[in-house]
Amino acid sequence: MNAEPDSMKLETPGPGSRLFEEAKALGDRETKKLGFLPHAAWEDYADARHILVATEGGQLLGYTAYRVPRAEVRIAHLVVHPDARERGVARVLVKELASRHHERRGIGLSCRRDWAANAMWPKLGFVSLGERPGRGSDGGILTEWWYDFGHPDLFSWAPGGSTLTAVIDANVFIDLHSRQSTETSQQTRQLIDALTDRVELVVTPELLNELYRQEDPAERQRLMQTAQTYPRLRASVPEVDRWVGRLAGTSSHPTKSEQDRSDLRHVAWAAASGAAIVVTRDRKVRRTLKVVADEAAGVTVCTPGTLASVIHEREHAGAYAPAALSATELSLRDISSNPDLAAPLLSHGTGERRRDFDRRLEEISAARPNSRLTLVEDPEGDVLAAVGATARTSTLTVSFARVQTGVLETTLAAQVAHYLRDTARALDCSSIIVQDDHLSPTLPKALQSDGFTQVAAGHFAALTIDERVPSAALSLVLARATNSLGQAQADALLGLAQSLSKDSPAALEHAFRPLRLLDADLPTWLVPIRRHWASELFGHPAMLLPRSLGLALSTEHVYYKKGRAGETAPGRVLWYLSGDPGGEVFGCSLLMDVRDGQPKELYRDFRRLGVYTFDDVKGAANENGLVRALNVTDTELLPVPVSLARLRSLAAKTKDGVNPVGAHRVSQALFQAVIREGHRDAD
């Protein structure tokens, strides 16, 4: 008997027919496995046409006898001939019952817990609703099983409403309701309790099957009764089964155990019901089903620790689209709701354990919206870097900072340091602490070059002060910025500030950028730059096409010019966008170096930093064949560009002459006026 189930024939035999007698004889032979059905009852079932048999070539494969009390179907017997088992006969019979009586609520039955058949019902789509003592002399426990047709009732959950909905599986449910308190369960309760006003927890019918596998009878009953108080997903079992097939067919990991099947059915119930979030602590589920669930069903599988991030992401839909990284072909992506994407950055070489790695990322994700977990990817989706940081009071604590080894490693490390300052300002933090014990090898040097100071092995600190103040106010600003730090960290940064303020105000601004000391003894030049070069070098105005990758990722740039306006380093450059349209001061850079030389020499030395071809550099040469190169860093784009008309108005007040065609030095008073004007909304 190797025919497929669809070759079976389903019939309803009447009393006294051959198939009726064969079904009754089969039932009598299996009495010890399913309970006795009196012969008078057989006649009643047959008269009511409530015996359904499956045959093939006239041979009986199996049958079910059932009643239809109230609004449900009630199975009294379901028996498959020993020679026809493992062929899907029982499934065909159940599906036919559902089809014939689809207007009812579902199919119910009772089965002794100690019978082998009891293990079959979950595989057919039934769920356990509870237990009760049987009527037998041995007091055997009966399990009540239910196959739902998907019709809504008062306890059903339906999509819609202003509160997000999350399905919880058994391990999360047990964390919330078990009488045993563990560190993990306490953490789960704290995480879920913090979200009670933002999420509605629901369960799938499959939860009852998971709870049914609990060994302790009293605890099993208590948990199952508690589960009945939750809103539950409602869908037809055939629809859930279709999703099981789709998900299992897409996954590269086979479903082997009862637990695997339950995990799969949780996601399938969510997909069939329109629920978009499934919460689990099971790492295997996340590994095997996370991507499949998202791509095939739009269901996000997350942990209690990342649930807050998932909710935040869905509440702010559109705010988490991939962002251009300095207008290059690389992209930034928030992965707070999916920290597993950072797995390629696990530091095997330093002995980092995957469990600790996962826990760290989940802690960052759980702090949303006061945290960021950001991934850098190339156009092929390969992971290049990631940063995880959490804001507490006015300090950004960076507990995860990694860069993949490769040709861009050093450049990306510098970008990570730069990104930390941007993130700190976005989260209203004035201090940054980096404390990743598995920090990528290129990052310590990059951090120190960026102005971070090392306070312990693998630990670095920096200040990012978004203020424009006179030197006299610096000590007050620094005290405020270091207020939330530990004593050792604060002392190290204050000592650095004291040292730099005496020796180099430019280095001080670099270390604590975007700080501007308005009265610092730094000369400033207004330098016109054409639109094309401004876009290529600084990303202003924004370009439609990605900028040169190495250039866009660099924090250092070079600008070639023909004329000499007395530029000296250290100093500042105010960039004036010339041409039509144009006419605005859009940015300020620190001037690190000024060099004059032959085009070939300068092109060779600064090629990595410029947007010019060799012919462009030659074209910038003066009548003596020399070119001037301005080497700049820490370019800040002004939040509000200063128009030419406004620039002239400010210059009139400071008694400066403004020449929008050629580079020239401006007074400290005009520099202050332009910087304040460019930050007028912030200040």
UniProtKB/TrEMBL annotation:
InterPro entries: Acyl_CoA_acyltransferase, GNAT_dom, PIN-like_dom_sf, PIN_dom. Keywords: Hydrolase, Magnesium, Metal-binding, Nuclease. Pfam families: Acetyltransf_10 (PF13673), PIN_3 (PF13470). Residues 8-148 form the N-acetyltransferase domain. The keyword Magnesium applies. It comes from the Bacteria. This is N-acetyltransferase domain-containing protein. It comes from Nostocoides vanveenii.
